[in-house]
Amino acid sequence: MPLLQYLATGLAGLAILGTTACYPLRSGNPFATAIPRQEDPNQLTAARLGVIVNRRNRLSGQIAEYYRRQRNIPPENLIWVEFDPGHTTLSVEAFAEIYAAVQAQTPDQVQAYALTWAQPYRVGCMSITAAFASGQTHTHPAPARTLVR
Question: Could you tell me which residues are beta bridge partners of residue 49?
Fold first, then answer.
């Protein structure tokens, strides 16, 4: 094998190892050895994802269980809430109760949530997804500001 081709094969192996699991790429390639993969503490993994489920919506439960199994999310990361799935708008007060229930059930290792409903919901002037993302602190529009020159 010419030296340039040998080096190119080895460098390609290093680039791929940096972005995938640590498996040898080719037998005989000295650069493609398995290196134990260390977990990045900032990486979102299945153990760090909470799945929020509406107990009053059978489809929400089915979606959550399917997603949990497919992504190997621990069962203890399922977070159960209750609200009427027939209403597409929640009051800020009702959402505050749901949000408090989520916070109380969330395991310490969870860093993000997956919401499992079959339709969009609104809280105040924003989506329920945005309300969860903002920590329910910005569910009202900001007051208009007048520019003075």
Answer: 112
| Token duo for residue 68 | 């949990």
Same domain, yes or no: 22 and 95: no
Centre a 10 Å sphere on the Cβ of residue 54 and count the other Cβ atoms it contains.
23
127 burial via Cβ count (<10 Å: 0-12, 13-18, 19+): middle
Distance of CA 6 to the CA centre of its chain: 40
Tell me the three state secondary structure of residue 75. helix
The answer to whether residue 29 scores a pLDDT higher than 50 is yes
Residue with tokens 């203890």: 76
Tell whether 53 and 2 lie within a shared domain.
no
In a domain, 149, yes or no: no
Burial class (CB in 10 A: 0-12, 13-18, 19+), 142: exposed
Number of domains in the chain: 2
20/39 Cα distance (integer angstroms): 12
Q: Which residues constitute the domain of residue 9?
A: 1-38
Return the SS3 of 51.
strand
Write out pLDDT tens, residues 55-105.
999 999 999 999 999 999 999 999 999 999 999 999 999 999 999 999 999
